[in-house]
Specification:
Layout lengths: L3 E10 L2 E11 L4 E5 L6 H9 L6 E6 L2 E2 L10 E4 L11 H11 L4 H14 L15 H14 L4 E5 L7 H18 L2 E5 L3 H7 L2 E6 L2 E6 L1 H6 L4 H6 L6 E8 L2 E4 L2 E4 L2 H7 L6 E6 L4 E3 L8 E10 L4 E6 L8 E6 L10 E6 L5 E3 L9
Length: 362
């Protein structure tokens, strides 16, 4: 096991830049997740660490060793791809043993390692089958096992669960987290699925357009995002965004008056009449009665029952042009399409973003 340190890594593919000035350090034994929209540079970073791509500038360290010019086979890094990349003519046993054989591992150690990994991944009963005889989840376990059997210093996973159905993805994600707790290998995991990122990561690196937007724990990024991109990318359902014009004590949101949180009033004083993007998460909206403070009025346009809760889509008037909101309500509320809602916001959970830069006003 070893730390992984990227120091101002840049990779260009003429005429565009895939990643620019990327710097972060993954401590020994931690599980870090790289997230962001398609094309943000996640897989490029993984391929540079693996030695499959060469950076145009910057330094890469694995442990205390500078590996800029070290060939991939000498980096002691194992990578699992989205398509599993198993050898179809080999049995599961032979696939698990392949990397060890290439390193001239003695036969006794090889067999012990294969059996141990197979047991930990619950594929010991599949050792004599070939990949074509396995389900997608079983193939994924074999691909993981082949990488683990080598006992590499660093484990790289490039969207390994994207080909699995929803239930199997949930199960495999839980198994993957338990597996990391057992083996403790330094891991970098690439995904575009923010639920995977939130549930798996010790730390998350949010990327956009080849640049790091924010690095932090899942809860920090969710509750304290530095900008609109991070705030809206993390969270399911995603954060609601409204446009509001600042008017001393309130924001004017499509003709409705939303109070300005006290903590923001002083900061916004010079911005009289300016427009801001206002963010509020669905769980921070509450349906209230006329006897309580009402911040916004909306009409239900879609009802999605989810069992323990109901997800509503509602629109601010006028219905044809008003902004849409998502909110979560208890099932006993029994909302219907067309219902008029009185909404109260948790104002201390309101995010205010500069519309030009996307930066959050603290």
């Amino acid at each position: 096991m070893a730390r992984v340190w990227l120091d101002k890594i840049t990779r260009r593919f003429s005429p565009s830049t895939a990643i620019e000035d990327i710097s972060f350090e993954v401590p020994d034994g931690q599980f870090w997740v790289l997230v962001g929209p398609s094309g943000c540079g996640k897989s490029t970073i993984l391929r540079i660490i693996a030695g499959l791509e060469t950076a145009n500038s910057g330094n890469l360290y694995i442990g205390d060793r500078l590996v800029n010019n070290v060939p991939a086979r000498q980096r002691d890094v194992a990578m699992v791809f989205q398509n599993y990349a198993l050898y179809p003519h080999m049995t599961v046993r032979e696939n698990l043993a392949f990397g060890l054989r290439m390193r001239n591992t003695d036969p006794k150690t090889l067999q012990e390692r294969v059996k141990s990994v197979a047991r930990s991944l619950d594929i010991a009963h599949l050792l004599d089958r070939k990949p074509g005889q396995l389900s997608g989840g079983q193939q994924q376990r074999v691909a993981l096992g082949r990488a683990i059997a080598r006992k590499p210093q660093v484990f790289l996973l490039d969207e390994p669960l994207s080909n699995l159905d929803a239930q199997l993805r949930d199960d495999t994600r839980a198994e993957l987290k338990q597996l990391h707790q057992q083996v403790g290998i330094t891991t970098l995991y690439v995904t575009h699925d923010q639920i995977e990122a939130m549930t798996l990561a010790d730390q998350i690196v949010v990327l956009n357009q080849g640049k790091v937007q924010q690095i932090g724990s899942p809860q920090t990024l969710y509750s304290d995002p530095v900008n609109q991109m991070v705030a809206t990318f993390l969270g399911s359902p995603p954060m609601n965004l409204l446009q509001g014009i600042y008017q001393e004590t309130h924001f004017e949101v499509e003709g409705q008056m939303l109070p300005v949180p006290n903590a923001l009033s002083r900061k916004l004083q010079p911005a009289q009449g300016q427009c801001f993007n206002l963010g509020i998460r669905p769980e921070h909206l509450r349906v209230v009665s006329e006897s309580e403070p009402v911040h916004l009025r909306a009409e239900v346009t879609l009802v999605e029952p989810l069992g323990r809760e109901v997800l509503l889509r509602a629109v601010l008037p006028p219905r044809q042009t008003g902004s849409t909101l998502s909110l979560q309500v208890p099932p006993q509320l029994r909302p219907q399409v067309g219902d008029r809602l009185l909404l109260q916001l948790a104002l201390d959970k309101l995010f205010v973003f500069d519309p030009s830069s996307g930066q959050r006003l603290s």
